[in-house]
Amino acid sequence: MRILSALAGRFARPLMIACIGLVSTAGAGVSGPLQPNTKIRLTIVQWMPTKGAYEQWGTLGGEFTISDDGALTLPLLGRVPIGKKDEAALASDIARQLKDKIGLVDEPSATIEILGYPPIYVVGDVAKPGEYQFHTGLTVLQAFAMGGGEMRSTSTLQSSLDVTQLVGELKEIDASIVRAGVTIKRLEAETAGEKTLQFQQELSNADPLTASIYKQEEAIFLARANEVARQSKSLSELRDLLSEEIRVQQEKIKSTDANIKSVQQQLDSTIALIERGAIVPARQAEVERTMRSYQNDKLDLAASIMRARQGISQATRNLEGLYDRRQTEVASELQSERANLTQLRLKRETKQKLLMDSIAHDDGSQESEQPLVVFKIVRLDTGKSSEMEASETTAMLPGDVLKVARRSAATSTTPSSAQTSMGAAAKIIQ
Known about the structure:
The radius of gyration is 36 Å and the shape is elongated. The chain is built from eight helices and eleven strands. It is of the alpha+beta class. A hairpin with a 4-residue loop joins β1 and β2.
């Protein structure tokens, strides 16, 4: 039984590490490199031999979004490029960097869970073009089905009401893009530690809506700066108060030392008088009690000084942590807002293309033969967009744009009518 217990204790930690690895791989959805704008949850734990258990590092983990240039901004480590890493490789790299950064003997255990993928977009000759949620194993044919399949002969956007609604959506997206851009400027100013926002030039040339957005972000900037200033002032005043308390207690100790010295002299004189028989021994006990009282007072004052110094250390740590937490929050918000801006721009491009294609489509044309559906995928890789031919079984990746087109040998749309339709679409978009 003792041998079995020893073996169990010896292999307990490796088995727990193996279980953590299984949890990390079980949550993997899309095999291959992590895509930009993917939202993940990072969990970091470390084995604590003294406790016999794993302890989670909550301040270093959390939810993060991969930026459009393929990187994560993490507390303590800063910018971590993703490259071609999947979840397991990225988790291993983060654990290794933390070990080197902190100077640990063993690497902590890091796991990555994918919380959400970037959506896909279906455009072109489909019944319901637009943005759709990505799921693992999605193929081109399934994405085509999400878009309602092949466009019917009657377009859903032929009516002026539908076109007006789409133009309104484009204007709403434009307003959201402006708002996201101003928010990014405000967050960048907070990251740089600027005291004020320089929006005067932008406000002079801005329309009423944009000017309102600038003023709102300026108010948020001032409120957040005032909050940090108030907390910093409070902690600084607490440190000053504790320092003054230490100074007063030290003065009291000097006075107590003087009293102890005086009582010691009195005690020496009393002992001499007792030896000569001038006074009774009871007088010596009384003086000794006075001496012990002063000595106890001195110990109490020393303990009070130690508590005050501990309070100063705690206030200093809280003051430093205040700025560290604020920088971490701002960095996370900035990363999310940049990802949001990228999504808004892509959404605007998709809807703009949808509007132009819908207006340019001539529903009166009759094709003499069944059209051929052709698929193309527009994919963003390392910051560059590329277009490739695709089949029905081609696997889709998060953030892909599926372009569907119909081709046939015969067409009744003349170049002049197509150019007229495109011109009308451009005027509506403007």
